[in-house]
Amino acid sequence: MARQAPSRDGEPVVHPSADLRNAVLGRFVEIKRDVVVRNSTVGDFSYMDRGSEALYATIGKFCAIAAHARINAVAHPMERVTQHKISYRPNEYFKGKKLDQGFRARRVAASVTIGHDVWIGHGAIVLPGVTVGTGAVLGAGAVVTKDVAPYRIVVGVPAKPLRRRFPEPIAERLLALAWWDWPVERVEAAVDDMTALSVEAFLEKWEG
Length: 208
Hints:
Shape: globular
Number of helices: 4
Distance between the termini: 45 Å
Helix content: 10-25%
């Protein structure tokens, strides 16, 4: 099968095997094979590789989500007699029983927010209620239990800060520049500089 390519006209590209329910997709979004997106928003130019999943999440622009990543992994009610879904989805097993709307409301309230230009590595897991700042990196296999600051790299189980992508002053200038919000034509004009220039040189050229 030929490799799925982004749509040059900006329409989202969704693999036929993907499972989308109540999903809002931005321009140039790519949803690959066996991806699940439910009750979530995926921002412009972001892509989700095979087998990844997002539930009750807001994902920013230009995010790179690797295969088998889990954003807002399913939570179970550990405080109950049973953690099995029979306690909150009894309707799937018994006629006349109703979905536990209170438990669902807890899931909705514990939504996940992913900033812009975030790289989520292969198999990383983001737990309910976490906010990941713009420019952050979640290492492969990381289990992210706490908020991640912008432009911070976190790794491990549970995930802990490894280092900053850039010094704090540079990160602040990038956040102020907010290039991810530029019109597509301006992004296109800047692409060669994104490739060729250092981050400092890019900022000097494109600020103001």
